[in-house]
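Box 3.1 A note on notation
Throughout this textbook, protein chains are presented in two layers. The first layer is the amino acid sequence; the second is a token string describing backbone geometry. Keep the layers aligned when reading.
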Amino acid sequence: MDAKQFLAEFGHIANAPGGVARLREMVLALAVQGKLLAQDPTDSLENELLKGISSGNHDVLRNSKSKLPKTLTTISPNEMPFEKPQGWEWARLGDIAEIERGGSPRPIDDFLTNDPDGLNWIKIGDTVKGSKFITSTREKIKKEGLVKTRMVYPGDFLLTNSMSFGRPYITTIEGCIHDGWLRIHPPSCLEKDYLYHLLSSPIVANFFLKAAAGAVVQNLNADKVRELPIPLPPLAEQSRIVTKVDELMALCDKLELQQQQRRNLQNNLRQSTLQAVGASTSPHELQLAWTFLEENFSRLFQVPEDINEFIANLKDLAVLGLLAKVTSDQSDLTEIISACSTLRSEYVSSGLMRKQKLILNVEHVELNYPEHWAVIPFDEVAVVIGGVTKGRDLRGKDVVTCPYLSVANVQRGFFKLDQLKTIQITKAELTKYQVLEGDLLITEGGDWDKVGRTAIWKGGIDNCLHQNHVFKARVPSERLLNEWVELIFNSGIGRNYFAGASKQTTNLASINMTQLRSFPLPIPPLAEQRNILKNLDVMTAFCQSWRNQLEHKQKLAALFATAVTSSFTGITTEPEENEPLKAPKPN
């Protein structure tokens, strides 16, 4: 099967999710089953090694340094994953190759050295993604550590036996290996490149998965690898198979490059369209950009994840007032502020919160909000209360046990309540920390994505509280919608504010109550709030429909690709996510 035939037969699979990775697996599966090339009956006439394996004569495999078992192991028919072609033989890898586990001198730090004459210390981190060779090491060990480890030599195969177990590499250097490696010294009846393709194939991967199944941490030991039944073609055919696999893997590389180029062009086109949407200065301009997007959907969006970026862009447009026509209504700002002031006074007088110095001014806002909108501190329109602190000493007090919301429970726009924990508080504190329907819950921080996450509590859980790392905000005026505030805090505009205002350490960020109360909140008239939210819901529903179409298309393509590959190879496998098999780099 040449490249042109291969493309005609299987090229459509490349467009399925993980399609090129599936093609690579198909190439290897077909290769080791003898289905890529026609067999030449003259290849095996003088192949004494295969004859020896077929007759059970182990002497033909042995040499003076051999550590092979004394007798060949019988392979039952049900252990053979496919019917071997004429002229091939089955053999267990451990019957024809030396297989040994590595070892580590301990404590390893005592044996590491900077001496140039030290022994190469080969670690999994010394492998290069996409390459089958190990050519250098970052570390060396002292020669006295050799008694606790294993030497390997150029041409030896190294097989990972833990973590991403079963991946083969060929070492081009001499060195030592730890117990995360298995050393395979191949026999003369196996061409190294053929053995590499064989060990990389889904047939062998399936064997290793079954061999390692049931363990808490999946790993391969030397005995399991020795039991591997492998198909052995004549040496001449092995060489032809390697040449054909390399040819088709190069074709897969080309397909992958073409896909990436198409993807880059598509990304650029989508970015330009999103920029046109984002640059809209009126609902009319937005409608024109939206119409173009609808008409060119298939050119702009390829995978469901592409939709997420556009939804985020829509939220930013909503916050800037571009999703609804301007109304002549006033924002009723005086009524909104008055309602908040009244609620705050009630809380202070009843002891639910301490008196706070009001934040009456916002810092300079560079965002281009509509002129008739008000922009004031969040503190003027909402009462913000901190949550209950864990680990307090409540001995001797009248307490009650209640569920509480932590940072993990509060997501952007929704709650995860499958792992709701409980905490004890005094009965007198229940009113202060209880979360009521309509309350806004805002996270203090943690990882970067956690800062300022906001969701509206819908009720449904009695006496639910909030932890001190989750702020509770109550907006008392019906002229300011909780959904509007939630949208702003979760938009890119809100996230940028919280990221800029937060206290930052390595990979962590957090905001305090003052920073939350100081948030410059844009407030449109009530009618505009409702119109914007309604239009955003409609557009988001369109986006969800597009995403569903893409997901359905991907599932169908994946099912079809699986069916085709399974029918031709007899093997059903799923390619590793983001880890397609790569054609090896030249030595």
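The mean pLDDT is 84. DSSP finds 17 helices and 24 strands in the chain.
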